[in-house]
Design goal:
The structure holds 2 protein chains of 2 kinds.
Chain A: H1 2-28, H2 35-38, H3 40-73, H4 79-87, H5 94-107, H6 115-118, H7 122-147, H8 150-158, H9 163-174, H10 176-191, H11 195-200, H12 207-218, H13 220-249
Helix pairs in contact in A: 3-7, 3-10, 7-10, 8-9, 10-13, 12-13
Chain B: E1 2-11, E2 14-23, E3 27-31, H1 38-46, E4 53-58, E5 61-62, E6 73-76, H2 88-98, H3 103-116, H4 132-144, E7 150-154, H5 162-173, E8 180-184, H6 187-193, E9 196-201, E10 204-210, H7 212-215, H8 220-225, E11 229-231, E12 234-236, E13 241-256, E14 261-267, E15 270-276, E16 285-290, E17 294-295
Helix pairs in contact in B: 2-3, 2-4, 4-5
Classes of the chains: A mainly alpha, B alpha+beta.
Chain lengths: ~250, ~300
């Protein structure tokens, strides 16, 4: 049995190092980190990325809470179809998402004026971030409402709280951690997007686009420090997520 | 006073069929096997489920179509459903807070009800740290503090072990002056607490009345549910069967209650249940004598 466990552990160690070593190497050989604070283009890219991430996450939250609630509490015709469609952005290749959105906007006459605001525009970035991030928000919030015992809501009603009041005072606070993890996941998914952004909104440049561009034009060393900045943001988001995940488990 | 008229409801796999009854300021226990639809009845009265047909009248007012928050009913679900993000005090005070009662008054009432239910020492506790019996008391306090027009209890002791169960029953006995509707599958609870008793099987209220219906079932279904022996057209309580020396019956099962045993005896084509102090084992041959039985129709 001991030998068996040792063999199993070897697999764990290999796959752990496969992910861990490149990260550690990157962080310990970041190149010239000064560009993060002095290169205007880099600073702008970070600002654009974080702002687009924040805006799209806010929109995802506004739509995700009611959507998650309905999916958790009610049964209706074609519910599993609706759920499957809402999950689909996770399965579609990223460049295809870009092509899809673009051809939809330009394919339908009455909406192709929107193209102006989407293509190579900040709102194009927001649109893509929302498209790829919304499944994480909806799923996280739906799972939260599913975990709230309906009897708790019923009791609140019998104690005199209206449906609306019960929703805001009882149910919503109980899924606080699901909301936070939904925010973090959809934000993180958004800002990491490259494929669809390349097609829809190369400008204004987001960080992943800038990393790609610097790599293509100037090589590895030019893209390294920006990548380190991005890794630090991702690790920070992930640490937050783990923290709230632990709290939810309590 | 609660009056339920011809209430019908189909919900998930459960059904209520034409249920009618009336209770005053008394403790009413509705007794029925698990899965009979007792919770559906309670949920209809609380306003959580909308009945398909029928009327619910509380203190002379038709509440059939009112939302739960306008009914003034106290509801204690089977799993207590305490608010997990509030401590005991805030759980109990929540209803008063919604009614915008002032803080001093809330404090006084919470302390009063906590004392009544022996939970004063728990007020600052996190509800997640409470035992089953403690949670039950908090849920009761939370419902009772609003002086509801009726208290609805859904299997209030089913999740508790026997010792805690007995102490909760004695707590429930203290509740006076409001109608209580308590649904359970536990015969002991019905005997101990019920001033009015209803028997509820397969979505139907097949008997309703005072405690006598537990002793004198009026039909076969009720008699069977209450554990009577049905011999011919008579219902005979297990206590009315005397085990004596003889040969006509064979013991096929024994449940040991300590001082006495419940035995199942194969007798002619019947399985007869009886209590005895004799030390019997499976396979023993015994004689039976029946004291008076109750004649039942159908």
């Amino acid at each position: 049995m001991e030998k068996f466990n040792a063999i199993m552990s070897v697999f764990l160690i290999i796959i752990f190092l496969f992910i861990f070593l490149p990260i550690v190497y990157m962080l310990s050989n970041p190149g010239d980190l000064n560009v993060l604070f002095s290169d205007e283009e880099v600073i702008w890219a970070f600002k654009t990325t974080l702002l687009a991430g924040a805006v799209s996450t806010l929109i995802a939250l506004i739509f995700g809470i009611p959507t998650g609630y309905i999916l958790a509490r009610y049964d209706f015709k074609f519910k599993s179809f609706v759920e499957a469609v809402l999950d689909l952005p996770m399965a579609i290749p990223h460049s295809v998402i870009g092509i899809m959105i673009l051809s939809f906007i330009y394919g339908i006459d009455i909406i192709n004026f929107i193209g102006r605001y989407i293509v190579d525009n900040f709102w194009g970035i927001v649109t893509v971030y929302l498209f790829v991030g919304i499944p994480f928000m909806v799923n996280s919030i739906r799972d939260g409402f599913l975990s709230v015992d309906e009897e708790i809501e019923y009791v609140s009603r019998t104690l005199g709280a209206s449906k609306v009041r019960t929703f805001f005072e009882i149910s919503l606070p109980l899924i606080k951690n699901n909301i936070i993890s939904g925010i973090i996941l959809s934000f993180a998914r958004g800002i990491s997007e490259v494929g669809a952004i390349l097609i829809i909104a190369y400008y204004p440049k987001t960080v992943p686009i800038l990393i790609y561009e610097r790599f293509m034009s100037f090589g590895l060393d030019a893209s390294k420090p920006i990548s380190v900045g991005m890794i630090l943001i991702s690790i920070a988001l992930f640490a937050l997520l783990r923290m709230f995940g632990k709290m939810r488990g309590r | 006073m609660l009056k339920v008229n011809n209430l019908s409801k189909i919900w998930k796999d459960f059904k209520l069929k034409n249920v009618s009854f009336k209770i005053d300021k008394e403790y009413c226990v509705i007794l029925g096997p698990s899965g009979a639809g007792k919770s559906v009845l309670i949920k209809c009265i609380a306003g959580i489920l909308k009945p398909d047909a029928g009327k619910i009248i509380l203190n002379g007012k038709d509440i059939t179509n009112l939302p739960p928050e306008k009914r003034n009913v106290g509801y204690v679900p089977q799993n207590y459903a305490l608010f997990p993000n509030k401590n005991v005090y805030k759980n109990i005070a929540y209803g008063l807070l919604i009614k915008k009662v002032n803080k001093l008054e809330i404090d006084r009432k919470v302390k009063e009800i906590a004392e009544f239910l022996n939970i004063s020492h728990l007020l600052n506790r996190d509800v997640k740290t409470l035992s089953g019996g403690e949670q039950q008391r908090v849920a009761l306090a939370r419902a009772l503090i609003l002086n509801p027009s009726i208290l609805l209890l859904d299997e209030p002791t089913s999740a508790l072990d026997i010792k805690i169960k007995e102490s909760i029953i004695s707590e429930l006995k203290k509740i006076k002056d409001i109608p209580v509707l308590h649904v359970t599958h536990d015969l002991t609870e019905a005997r101990t607490l019920g001033e009015k008793i209803g028997i509820f099987i397969d979505g139907e209220l097949i008997a309703f009345g005072n405690k006598d219906i537990l002793k004198k079932p009026n039909n076969k279904k009720v008699a069977e549910f209450l554990g009577f022996n049905i011999v011919g057209n008579k219902a005979i309580a297990p206590e009315e069967v005397i085990i004596k020396d003889g040969d006509e019956g064979e013991v096929i099962n024994v449940v040991d209650y300590g001082r006495y045993k419940k035995v199942f005896v194969k007798y002619n084509c019947y399985i007869i249940k009886a209590f005895t102090e004799r030390d019997l084992n499976i396979g023993d041959r015994v004689g039976l004598e029946f004291r008076e039985g109750i004649k039942i129709i159908s």
